[in-house]
Amino acid sequence: MIALDEMQRDALTELVNLGVSRAAAALRVMIGHEIMLSVPRVEIVARGNAARMIGEQEGTRLVAVRQDFEGDFSGRALLIFPETKSLELVRAIIGGGLPLEDIVALEQEALAETGNIILNNCLATIANVLKRSLRMSLPDIMRGDGTELFEVSGTGDPNDVVLVLYINFTVSARDITGYIAMLMDLPALRSLRELLDELVLRNMASPDVPR
Amino acid sequence: MAYRVLVVDDSKLARMSIARLLDALRPDWIRVEAANAAEAIAWQGREPIDLALLDFNMPGPDGLALAADLHNRAPAMPMAIISANNQDEVVARAHALGAAFLPKPLTQAALQEFLAEVEARVTTTGQAAD
């Protein structure tokens, strides 16, 4: 079983914190209300359990914006909301003045655009700090339970282990809660470990050495 | 004057990164590190701290709660919140506590600017921080 040592886990958690903090700042600009973030969690779990980490806490029906990324390490980034909060988010972004039918009509597009901004901010920050480039797919809206959302390759064996990074956010003024999650499978995890080791080394080096 | 600097971050990597920059900019300064608010308060009670560099998003009390606590204990102590979360509310709350807001990842230039500003402030008022 592949694992992360203490320093790798520390570096990864800090990296996710950086990425999600930037993403929250971008969402703040769109919504006009403060976004509160939890401390990120990093876990290596069986694929079947990854789904339950989110599904258990928020019920079963979820809506997510998904973007797959590939490069030195590949995986899937998700912006996840309980389905009941999705319209509230769209309303917060496009303004309260529109009638419900217009908000419903704009839901897909607004969610995709919001997800794109949030996930790109997050992934680009992580890629920059790791000094690697990641290619990101176009955003895709998914609806379903946690198991359906967390299927990384489409042929996932529920006993495979996956790396799950997630953080909970709330917009208290608008009663919106959601998650930003990232999933990576084993080959990605191996590459990521090497990049984390490099990152730790760069931070131990003398500052005269170009980073 | 060799300052005693308190660095608070739950990430060891982030503390290493700040330490690296501090060592380059002010090699004679003394650094103490804490991984959370409770450890930071314990340091502050044990010995005088001249400057505090605080992470924002940490388990337990966050950096702004810690800054408020430290500010009550040592009102003249310069502080900076270091975070990638530059939402208006976070920056405003830092400023309301008299703390600077420095973007994360911290650069040597941004830290240098803050340290120079703190030293100028202390020189102007003719006294070290509490």
Summarize it.
The complex is a heterodimer of chains A (211) and B (130). Chain A is α+β, with helices and mostly antiparallel strands.
Describe the fold and architecture.
The complex is a heterodimer of chains A (211) and B (130). Chain A is an alpha+beta fold. Chain A has one domain: Chemotaxis protein chec. Chain A has helices at residues 6-31, 47-58, 83-94, 100-130, 146-149, 186-204; strands at 36-37, 41-46, 62-71, 75-82, 134-136, 140-144, 161-171, 176-184. In chain A, strands 1, 2, 3, 4, 5, 6, 7 and 8 form an 8-stranded antiparallel sheet that branches. In chain A, helix 1 (6-31) packs antiparallel against helix 4 (100-130). The two termini of chain A are 32 Å apart. The mean pLDDT of chain A is 84. With 130 residues, chain B is an alpha/beta fold. Among the domains of chain B are: 1-29 and 38-49, no CATH class; 75-107, no CATH class. Helix content of chain B is 48%, strand content 18%. Chain B has helices at residues 12-25, 37-46, 63-73, 88-96, 108-125; strands spanning 4-8, 30-34, 51-55, 79-83, 100-103. Chain B has a 5-stranded parallel sheet with strand order 2-1-3-4-5, with helices on both faces. The model of chain B has no long low-confidence stretch (mean pLDDT 93). The interface between A and B is medium-sized, with 27 and 26 residues.
Biggest β-sheet strands, sense, barrel of chain B: 5 strands, parallel
Q: Which overall shape of chain A is indicated by the principal axes computed on the Cα atoms?
A: globular
Oligomer: heterodimer
Average pLDDT level of chain B = 93
Write the layout of secondary structure elements.
The complex is a heterodimer of chains A (211) and B (130).
Chain A: H1 6-31, E1 36-37, E2 41-46, H2 47-58, E3 62-71, E4 75-82, H3 83-94, H4 100-130, E5 134-136, E6 140-144, H5 146-149, E7 161-171, E8 176-184, H6 186-204
Antiparallel strand pairs in A: 1-7, 2-7, 3-4, 3-5, 3-6, 4-8, 7-8
Helix pairs in contact in A: 1-4, 1-6, 3-4
Chain B: E1 4-8, H1 12-25, E2 30-34, H2 37-46, E3 51-55, H3 63-73, E4 79-83, H4 88-96, E5 100-103, H5 108-125
Parallel strand pairs in B: 1-2, 1-3, 3-4, 4-5
Helix pairs in contact in B: 2-3
